[in-house]
Automatic annotation (TrEMBL), chain A:
Domain Peptidase M48: start-end pairs: 91-269
Biased composition (Basic residues): 308-318
Native source species: Novimethylophilus kurashikiensis
Cofactor names: Zn(2+)
Gene3D superfamilies attached to this UniProt entry: Metalloproteases ('zincins'), catalytic domain
Family of the protein in this entry: Belongs to the peptidase M48 family.
Record-given protein name: Peptidase
UniProtKB/TrEMBL annotation, chain B:
Superkingdom, taxonomy of origin: Bacteria
Region (Disordered): 142-164
Key words of the record: Signal
Gene3D superfamilies to which the protein is assigned, alphabetical: SH3 Domains
UniProt xrefs under Pfam families: SH3_3 (PF08239)
SH3b domain location: 30-73
Record bears the keyword Coiled coil: no
Protein name: Ligand-binding protein SH3
Signal peptide: 1-19
Length: 318, 164
């Protein structure tokens, strides 16, 4: 035990002397010491301070989630988003977004994740991802899109967050590792659920590292193109963001993402060397969707309105 | 869908499609068509104010202050959020009143859910709703079939290299 503690301390001091994150990662890769032992050593021998928290965060960041843990994390994070805004319970619209989303996800390195796509029933404009295969888009954003390649661009951006573990890594840095492990082992469920919920609220409110957003943009355009779409769907959405007044419905989007003009500039550099095929820009099914997600005027103001048909009748007229 | 709703929506789309103020992000050429080998209409200088009229593939159709119309590479444009944009569009994201029929009375906000920072702070996690997502799951085959109706096929495009 003493030897292990000494090794742990050696690792800890190696970390302190170098670049915190890289140092910790390399040091831990090269030893058989696990993060529990390092954490224990840090707790025992280091006084409470910002350095201690940074070191513990760096140690946490070396933990690799199992797919099961990542799914659990994503399920709990999705519950927070859906606690703020429920699903838009129109089966046709929801299934459409799942069809488009899954088609794109099938072109990634992880086609077999249990991908789940959902429309949040809010006029706010935004899209979200959660680990393990969860992707959300708001009804408000769907209404602002002009064609299916724009939807594909947004979904491909979010899918990239999942594939590249952006939220999972960010939650690790926020100290979610033990909480998630507890949930997977079904230990102290309610306390862990509450703790994870608060961590998720914090992350969704403050956003990912800007570099992760640029990464999702860059990979998103290539991914959409791999799925047969025009690569310019996402840039077109960014143009829309950049030219839209920043009212309350877009506040969180702007607070958690780099400036849209800077994102356009980054894509200009990233896409410069590739000659993208023309790709598909729109599809009839997208126009159907936009009818389905439309907000209706209240009944009192629409006396002449016929009952809304969500599906075309298959029957031909008698 | 009522015709008046569509009229309102079309007006909004038209308002967005026309005369969105933009600026030239870096010196480039205004082309007569959306193609690199198209003839040059004018030289555009960095910071030049133009009007954005719409997009075609990787190109944006614009109108210069001198009244010349043509195409610029889409990613060579910047935009500034402008108060002159339709306030109805702004209202859409908060009140969902896009399809309202000319009257501008506010939709009651009671019950309108949001995903603002405040909404997230107040949110009680809803695991049941996560379970409800299972109702809308599609199979890979269904997704492929649907993609085919949209004339989509996988393209052999390498993903960008990961930066060291």
């Amino acid at each position: 035990m003493k030897t292990k503690l000494l090794i742990s301390l050696a690792v800890a001091s190696a970390v302190m002397s170098g670049c915190v994150t890289d140092g910790a990662t390399d040091a831990l890769k090269n030893t058989n010491v696990n993060r529990d032992q390092v954490n224990k050593a840090v707790d025992t021998f280091m006084p409470d301070s910002g350095y201690k928290q940074a070191l513990k965060g760096a140690v946490e960041a070396t933990h690799t989630w199992t797919p099961e843990e990542e799914r659990q994390l994503g399920t709990n994070m999705s519950a927070v988003l859906l606690g703020a805004s429920p699903l838009y319970k129109n089966p046709q619209a929801e299934r459409y977004v799942n069809e488009v989303g899954l088609w794109i996800a099938l072109q990634t390195t992880q086609p077999d994740l249990p991908w789940r796509f959902g429309i949040l029933d809010t006029p706010n404009v935004n899209a979200f991802a959660a680990p393990g295969g969860y992707v959300f888009i708001t009804r408000g954003l769907l209404l602002r899109l002009h064609n299916e390649s724009e939807l594909a661009g947004v979904l491909a951006h979010e899918i990239t967050h999942v594939i590249n573990h952006h939220h999972a890594n960010a939650m690790k840095k926020r100290g979610a590792t033990d909480v998630v492990a507890g949930l997977v082992q079904q230990k102290s469920g309610s306390a862990n659920t509450a703790a994870l919920g608060n961590l998720a609220k914090g992350l969704y409110s403050s956003g990912l590292d800007k570099s992760d957003e640029y990464d999702a943009d860059r990979n998103g355009v290539y991914l959409a193109a791999r799925a047969g779409y025009s690569a310019y769907g996402l840039p077109s959405v960014l143009q829309m963001y950049a030219s839209t007044p920043q009212d309350a419905g877009l506040q969180l989007l702007f607070a958690t993402h780099p400036d849209p003009n800077a994102r356009l500039d980054a894509l200009n550099t990233a896409m410069d060397k590739t000659n993208f095929p023309k790709g598909v820009e729109d599809a009839a099914r997208f126009k159907q969707l936009q009818k389905l997600v439309q907000y209706e005027a209240p009944a009192s103001e629409a006396p002449a309105a016929a009952p809304k048909k969500t599906k075309k009748s298959k029957k031909s007229p008698a | 869908m009522k015709i008046s709703c569509w009229a309102a929506l079309l007006m909004l789309v038209a308002a967005q499609a026309h005369a969105t103020p933009a600026s030239v992000a870096r010196g480039s050429e205004l082309k007569s068509k959306p193609a690199l080998d198209a003839t040059k209409v004018a030289d555009l200088s960095e910071g030049e104010q133009v009007e954005h009229l719409g997009n075609e593939g990787g190109w944006s159709k614009i109108k210069t202050a001198q009244g010349k119309t043509g195409y610029i590479r889409m990613l060579n444009l910047h935009f500034a959020a402008s108060a002159s944009n339709s306030s109805a569009v702004a209202g859409l994201s908060t009140l969902g009143n896009v399809a309202r029929t000319g009257s501008n009375t506010n939709v009651a906000t009671t019950g309108v859910k949001g995903v603002t920072k405040e909404d997230l702070d107040k949110a009680t996690p809803n695991p049941e709703e996560v379970g409800n997502m299972e109702r809308y799951v599609v199979s890979a085959d269904e997704a492929r079939k649907s993609a085919k109706t949209a004339k989509l096929s996988p393209q052999d495009i390498a993903m960008p290299e990961v930066k060291p």
